[in-house]
Amino acid sequence: MIRLLQKFEQKLLRHGLCEDGTILLGLLDDKFYWNKIDTNTSLLEKVFEELNIASILFAKPAEPYFTILNSLADEATNGFFVPQDSETRTFFHDIPVAETLDLKNIVGALKRRRSIFIKNNGIVTYGTISPEQAFVVYSSVCFSSYVKFFSDILSNPTNWQKKEFAINEATRYLNFLTTCTRNVKLQKGPLHARSDILSAIVDAGKATVQCRLVDSYFGNISYFDGTSIYISQTASSLDELTGCIDECPIDGSSCTGITASSEFTAHREIFLHTQRRAVLHGHPKFSVIMSMQCPLRPCELEGDCHRRCPHKRFIENVPIVPGEIGTGKYGLCQTLPPVLKNSHGAIVYGHGVFTTGENDFADAFKQLADIEIMCVQRYIETIKANDSQKS
Ligand SMILES: [Zn+2]
Ligand SMILES: [Zn+2]
Questions:
Q1: Which of 86, 234, 356, 362 is the most buried (most CB within 10 A)?
Q2: Ligand 2: distance of its center to the CA of 151 in Å?
Q3: CA of 85 to the centre of ligand 2 (A)
Q4: Do 2-155 and 179-384 have matching folds?
Q5: Residue-wise pLDDT tens digits, 199-236
Q6: Which pLDDT band, with edges at 50, 70 and 90, does 297 fall under?
């Protein structure tokens, strides 16, 4: 039990989501198990009594998330704020906030939603089966808050202090990203042996998470060897893909289906349309932020643009497409393949980036990194340009 708690404590630290000593993680089995002795354990044990949960996480987000969450909480009306990216739409409609850490606030919010942010304290979230669920929600709250905070600054006139914070953070992130992605070395293709393909997928997944181009539980990755598609399983952790890769014939005949990624159809259609071999899908923050900045607003489909906006848009030469997960009329399997014929990467509105590699992930990864680096640079330029116009 303690080892399980330590695993997720280490993951929160490794992903830059928390600082050492600020994580309180507990689970209920034959008794309560906690990762450390803390004054708040008795309060949180009462939460277990009120809700049907198996684990609870209360942690202070690391910077810049802590400042961002406090800022969003200050502006929250009716006790919650509403992010707009797709990760959030999948997980929660809004993020509740409260002034104080008390039982009533926590239980009230967690009966309705997956998490709550307590001002100047931290995020509380839970898992009904494993602490993994708490980790996923925690990391989603951080991601969605980040995207909302930076998007709000672009779309609304705001104070100097916030803009300065945004420019500094974006610059820090840009430096991190440039260094991290430059050091990534991935196998060159074309790959033929099954074992080479599997290890190339595992390595590409790790590099994508390590450079923070995706949270570990989102995104997916696949390779086509001419006969079969090797694809990460749904809800698998992109930095722990060993043993979590499905092999599906291109015709879909004997694919495990249930475990293969929810975006399998999109991957398959991309391979069929483009003759390329590698597909990589991540959720890089600034690509998501910039994709939601539509100059064509107001749009006749306002509010539904992420699913079916009819306008053709680009950031530099990278296309932005609408589309939803799955095989429906507005599915990514319909919107992505046509644009990827002429481009090695595309941004899905408010969601993430899909890139392709002619023969390998070295190529697909470089495309993903280049798109995100371009979007951060664009973000910084846009904010600076807004300022000079006003002054
Ligand atoms: Zn995605
Ligand atoms: Zn639109």
A1: 356
A2: 16
A3: 15
A4: yes
A5: 999 999 999 999 999 987 789 999 999 999 999 998 89
A6: confident
Q: Which ligand lies nearest to the CA atom of residue 213 in the structure?
A: 1
Which residues make Cβ contacts (< 8 Å) with residue 224, sequence separation at least 6?
A: 230, 250, 271, 276, 277, 278, 279
- Judge whether 126 and 50 are in contact, CB under 8 Å: no
Tell me the ligand closest to 350's alpha carbon.
Answer: 1
Q: What is the pLDDT of residue 148?
A: 92
Q: How many whole angstroms separate alpha carbon 203 and alpha carbon 239?
A: 8
Nearest ligand atom owner, CA of 232: 1
Taking each helix axis from N to C terminus, what angle separates 160-182 and 131-155, rounded to the nearest 10 degrees?
A: 120
State in Å: Cα 29 to ligand 2 middle: 49
Distance 67 CA to ligand 1 centre (A): 26
Which ligand is nearest to the Cα of residue 354, counting in written order?
1
Ligand minimally distant from the alpha carbon of residue 214: 1
Q: Is the pLDDT of residue 8 over 90?
A: yes
Query: Can you give the pTM of this predicted structure?
Result: 0.94
Q: Distance, CA 144 to ligand 1 centroid (Å)? A: 13
pLDDT at 86 over 80: no
In angstroms, what is the span from residue 334 Cα to ligand 2's centroid?
Answer: 17
Using the mean position of ligand 2's atoms as its centre, give its distance from the Cα of residue 300 in Å.
Answer: 7
- What is the per-residue pLDDT across 141-179, written as a single tens digit (0 to 9) for each? 999 999 999 999 988 767 888 999 999 999 999 999 999
CB 277 within 8 A of CB 359: yes
Distance 42 CA to ligand 1 centre (A): 38
Residue spans of the domains in the chain: they are: 2-155, 179-384
| Per CATH, domain 179-384 is 3.40.225.10 | yes
Q: Of the ligands numbered here, which is closest to the C-alpha atom of 261?
A: 1
**Is domain 2-155 annotated with CATH 3.40.225.10?**
yes
244 Cα–ligand 1 center, Å: 17
